[in-house]
Specification:
Layout (H helix, E strand, L loop, with lengths): L9 H11 L5 H11 L4 H14 L2 H9 L6 H13 L3 H13 L7 H17 L4 H16 L36
Length: 180
């Protein structure tokens, strides 16, 4: 029995994930597939997060940057990758661009991640006056939404992005369901 119709747009992505999941050749599959360049946005997003997990921060940022229909989490993941790669100037640029993009919707947990990334940048490099002002505004907004201790010292990591995957039924790393 077929699970998906033959003309389903999910088949290329499903094949991509299955080939990546091969325990003996997942990373080699990604490396070879990058050369083909025939990836859709979901393939790039999937590969970008896998590369973040494996520590290939520069390539992950390139993949997130190549997504045509970017979501807020793609920008945030790029900023996180550059922070982890210790390219603080590019991380700062990505975070500043995030602020000026006219997103249709930025969810509170995405704004919380944005806040956390700025705090991480602050701890590693320091902030410009504009960035400091942005952190203050985010703090006010998040406090108004009922977020608890914003300065708990908890730093984002790759698993933090599971919290902004878009599934409102999952408990967030940074938030709880009472914030949704």
């Amino acid at each position: 029995t077929e699970i998906l119709p033959r003309d389903s747009g999910l088949i290329p992505f499903a094949d991509f994930v299955v080939n990546y999941s091969d325990p003996e050749g997942g990373r080699a599959f990604l490396d070879a597939s990058i050369e083909s360049g025939s990836w859709d946005d979901e393939m790039r997003r999937f590969a970008g997060f896998r590369l973040l997990e494996s520590g290939d921060f520069n390539l992950a940022t390139n993949l997130f940057g190549g997504i045509e229909r970017q979501k807020p989490k793609d920008y945030l993941a790029s900023g996180f990758a550059m922070l982890e790669a210790e390219d603080y100037d590019l991380a700062s640029q990505i975070l500043q661009e995030f602020a000026v993009i006219p997103w249709l919707r930025v969810r509170p947990d995405e704004n919380y991640m944005y806040y956390q990334l700025y705090r991480l940048l602050e701890s590693r490099k320091g902030l410009t006056p504009l960035e400091h002002h942005r952190v203050e505004e985010l703090s006010k907004s998040l406090t108004g939404l009922g977020y608890p201790d914003l300065d708990s010292g908890q730093e984002p990591d790759i698993n933090s992005f599971c919290a902004i995957s878009g599934n409102p039924d999952e408990e967030s790393v940074f938030t709880s369901n009472e914030h949704r």
